[in-house]
Every structure is written in C-alpha cells, then in structure tokens.
Amino acid sequence: MTVTTDAGSASSQNILSSPAILSVFLKLSVPMAIGMLLNGLHTLVDALFIAHFVGEQAFAAVSAVFPLQVALVALAALFANGTSVLLSRSLGAGRHQDGQRIVSTGSFLAWLIAAMVALLTWLGGPLLLAAMGLEQNLYADAWIYLMINGVGCLVLFNLSVVADVHRGLGRSNTLFLIILLGALANIALDILLVVLLNLGVTGAALATLISQGLAWWYGIRALNSKPELRQALRPYWYRGWARRILLQGLPVTLMYLGGALVMLTCTVQIARLAAEQGESMLAAYGLLGRISIFISLPMIAMTHSCQTLTAYHAGAGSKRLAKQSIKVGLLSTSGYLSLTALLLMLAMQSIAGLFSDNPLQVHMATDIAGLLYMALPLAGISAVAIAALQALGKPHLALVLSLAKTYLFMMPMLVLLACWAGLDMMWYAFPGAELLSVTLVLCLVFISRRQLWPTSEEAGYATSH
C-alpha cells in the first residue's frame, strides 16, 4: 500500500495547537456532546417506540439483550479510540505519514473484528440467551434484536473508526454532523419501520443499522478534503501500529465493556431472584440502563475532548498545556454530573412515566435510581483519569483503573449483595464502586506522580510498520 505525505495537514491542526485550552475544549466538546446526545436519543426513542407500539413484553426482551448491544459499542472503542489517540499524537509531533498508517491499521482491525463478532453471534447467540435464563416468551424478540445488531456490527465498527478519525483531527463540527445525521435518520426510520410498517423489534433494529450506514457514508464523504486520509481508510495491516492501537484502546474498551457486563449481571440477578415481578423489574432496569448511557454521553464527549487535547500537547512536548487540558476535563465532567444527578433525583418519577403506564415499573425505576445515581458526580474523575493516562502514553495504568472499577469493585459487590442481602441491597454496589474507584485514582496519581509525564520512548511511535 502506498502512503502519501500530507504536506498541508498542519493547517487543519491550528485549533488543537492553540494555547487557549478552555476555548478549544469548548469548541471540541460542545458540538460533540450535542451530537452524541442526539445520537443517544435513538436508544430512548427505540425504547419509546417499542414500549408504546410493540408492547411491554417486547420492551422487556430488548432490555434483556441491550447490554450486549452496549458491548458492541465497547468493542468498537478498542480500535477506534486507539486510532484517534495515536492520530492526534502523531499530528502533534508533525508525523503525518504515521497518521495515515494508523488510520489504515484501525480500518483493518474494524473489518477483522466485525467478521469475528458476526460469526460468533450467528453461532453462539442462542446459547448465550439460554445461559441468561430468559423466559420463553421473551426469547424470539431478544434473538432477532441481538442477531441484527451482532451480524450488522460491520457498519457500527467502520462508522466508529471514521468518526474517531474526525475527532483525532479536531473536526468537532464534522463529527457533530455525522452524529446528527445518524440520530435523525434513526428516528425517521423508527417511525417508518415500527409504526407505519409494523415490523416490531425487527424494525427497531433495522432502523439503527441503516442509520449507522448513512452516518458512515457521510463520514467518508466528509474526508474529501483529506484525500490521503480517505485513501488510508482502505484496510491495511501495519503490525507495529496494530499493537499500539489495541493497547491504547483497551482501557476504554474494558471500561465500556464493564458497563455492559454490569448491566448483564444485574439482568441475570433480576431474572434469577425477582420471581413474579421479574418482567416489571427487567423493564424498569432496562429503562435506567438506557438513561444511564444517555446521560453519560456528554461526559464521554468531555473526556474525549480532554484526551484529544492532552494527546496533542503531549506529542508536541508541552507539559503545561497538557496539564491544563486535564484540569479543564475534570472540572467540566464533575460539574455536569453533579447537575445531572440532582435533576434525576428530582424528576425520575416523571421521566419513568414517559416510558410506562405501569405504576409498579415507575415505582421500581424511581427507587432504583435513588441508589444508582447517588455517587454519579464522582464518575467523571475515573473517566478523565483513564483518558488522560492513555493520552500521556500510560495505557498500563489506565488499564489498572479500568479493570479495578468494574471487575474488582462493581461486579463482585453486585453478586455478593444480591445473594446475601437481596435485590434491594444490590444497588448499593454502584455508589460503593464509585467511592473505591476514586480512592484508587488518588492513590495511583500520588504514587506515580513523578512518572506520569511520558518518556521520550512513550511519546514516540512504532518504528516497525
């Protein structure tokens, strides 16, 4: 594969090289946050359409497999996030040819992993649903929703790479338009396929898949001004870059995947212990899972913007600007999550009432939310810490934080509390895990404070392409 040198790329990086960190952060994060909220709106819109036009049983079935859909998004971050971080650092260091190789390798990984996931879904999906212990009346809808999303993940994975290339370039407005197109298309297709054509759960899944395809197409077209990067989207394997992309993306993937596994663990515990109220509690928790993802999207936009700025200035060798980027990220995420937690505490009953006329479901969702979001303002600390450590070339420390929060703290607490104290106590695992995670962040930063700035080797790039 021939890789061209981008002589004019530097001009597009002016926004990232500016020393006005807060201004650049806002220019990157605000459009991205708005776009991601619109994109995340489709999960709530899907829930509304399925609940109101298909039925409560179908909504419970989709809620049961929703964690697996989240797992696909987490898997996409493995190569998309790593591609974006390394692209920003390579451009900050003025190594534009390396940026093209990074994009080519990220695209190759997207196609390869998508093929593997599609095969595993087709062959292993029924076994997974059986292992979850779903009631027989939920199985058919759960399988069709899982199958369409799993086999069609090629579209999601390639969209993620293209979108994160724009993020790595600092093109927040283009990224906003990609997300906006996908969100609006999804809502329009939900109306067409679910309401007008009465395709039920199949229609909702196809609406998501087709809207992702449209956003992918637009993202590629938006790279026309960067023909060398559009050409680089053709899959090609550079071994040295593949290892670095996967290592960079692994902490974020484990963090997102952990969220999916937490949702799956709660779903399994509810199915196992809730007895006659199981279907109502599954629907209530499924709604809260979608709301949790929706409210996390602006935080993700902020951490991504913080990560992009930190990676760029770390690559350029500016320690002061990199530290300012991290501080802005911490203050922004903490402030946003504090306001969001307050709003949810005050308005959850009204919010839940929009999705269900069942008083039991509304009551369950309101009670669970009080514990679920108790320590929400602390969640931004660990998220920014993981993003910043990746940007500074410390993926191993980021990996420790990702693993600890979900796999060392959250999941064991969920299972132990559910088994020993019942479902009502299980929800205390969420604030408990947040407190333990923040404590670990503070300890790691204090212990490793002299080694946090990247060495010359960590600030460099693979030489074996």
UniProtKB/TrEMBL annotation:
The portions of this protein that span the membrane are 20-38, 58-87, 108-130, 142-163, 175-197, 203-224, 245-270, 282-301, 328-351, 371-392, 404-423, 429-447
> What InterPro entries would the database entry show?
MATE_fam (IPR002528), MATE_MdtK (IPR050222), MdtK-like (IPR048279)
Q: Does the keyword Ligase apply?
A: no
The membrane-topology field of this record reads: Multi-pass membrane protein
Q: Where in the cell is it found?
A: Cell inner membrane
Write the record's keywords in alphabetical order, separated by commas: Antiport, Cell membrane, Ion transport, Membrane, Transmembrane, Transmembrane helix, Transport
Q: Which residues lie in coiled coils?
A: none
Write down the superkingdom of origin. Bacteria
Query: Which Pfam families does the UniProt record give?
Result: MatE (PF01554)
The main location is: membrane
Q: What is this protein called?
A: Multidrug-efflux transporter
